[in-house]
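anyone seen this seq b4? input:
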Amino acid sequence: MNVQIFNAFSLKIIMIILMAIDHIGQFIPGIPPWFRWIGRIVAPIFFFLLAEGYDHSRNKIAYLKRLFKAGIIMFIGNTILWFIFKNESFISNNIFLTLAINLAILILLDQKEGKNKLLLIALIIFAALTEGSLLSTAVIIIFHYLKDKKLIMSIAYIMVSLLLIPNIQWMQVFALPFILMYNGERGPNIKKFFYIFYPVHIWILFIIGSYMSI
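predicted toks r here
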């Protein structure tokens, strides 16, 4: 029986739904903690899809620029809302910057000649400061370089995930079944939808949560 039933489109749709649940738990007061547990599998799936997108992208630099632009726009939006609502904590959510920096790291790592080691070190430092921290870098490197060795990739991913105990992020280990059920097909392109939905739903939930906390 073929269990590889998910293409990139179906994975994104499922993760968008789970991501929204996670962020409801993050921004709306009084939501049960299991809302956040559900969301732990979301980021690793997008990291996996980044590694896949990197391998299949015809123009990696254009892909990189698109992510950086989205990250900058979201940073500006997060900053504006922070000033408007005088919130104690800045909106740290910005997966676009996490993805962009790690994509740049992959591009540099794969350069056979003229590799800029200082730039690579700087990017790794910046990755540590993003929403995904160096965990995102480790996971993306695992997905990229071990993609053809599914057993080794799975073991490495499980080990990295379990090292996070007792932090709830260890629950990212449950993203692995979805990854192993990926069939390598892209499906319909919802790239524009995700670039819009991700920041907008976070900003809306942040505003609702801010008013509910007054």
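The chain has one domain: 8-212. The first helix runs from residue 8 to 27. kinda curious what u guys think
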